[in-house]
User: Fold these one by one.
Assistant:
Number 1:
Amino acid sequence: MSQQPAESTSESTGFSESSELDPAVHAKLARYEPEVRGAFLRFRKTGSVADVQIVVLAMVREHLPKPSGAPITDGQRLVEDLGYDSLAVAEVIFAFEDLFGLRIETSEIMTLDTVGSLKAFIARKLENNNLAKS
């Protein structure tokens, strides 16, 4: 019987996840598909907005109050269309803060009403965060 290697390289991402992610981040992303983990890794390496949007969309789906297999579009409203309430919005925002190391103010959250506005907001927040660290 052969042993599994400690590191696995995802064919879809080309990254060795265990060597590219610190254990805490790896644990946070473990429940997501390899495509999402790969997008997070690419974002960390390149700052790609497209990759951030893949991760944001996956996290929105993960925190849906009433999960369904239906596609999620940028125009869908978080509350009216997807069934988010204030607690679900807070949970997904906390998840973004935790994963990306962001600080998001309550007043900022109140401006987010659609999936598209949330994706754009997180991308801007990350860009501003990276500029501040430079």
Number 2:
Amino acid sequence: MKKGFIALAAGALLVLSMTNISSASDKSEGYKLAKANGCLACHAVDQNKVGPSYKVVAQRNKKLYGDKALEEIEKAIEKGSKGKFKDLGITAVMPPYNYLGKEKIETISKWILQQDK
């Protein structure tokens, strides 16, 4: 009985810790800015929508650009982007979001890069 309770408690703690991890991501400044500026209408963290998931964006930019991945994502947000994810069947054009300014673009881009797991 005692072993069953311990296993149940350990399982509950694991579920709670996983919930806290995802909500911590949802509370980050980058997530808040992405949500407030309509980015989540076309993108999701781990699922392709009209645009690629942020997980795919982070993974692909890190693989292709390494240390320059942040700059590439910032450029795509600032100037817009098209055709980078055709291989995934994504043909939508991302409009430029230069009106956000460099600071907000950098914050969103850093958050996107953290979604690679």
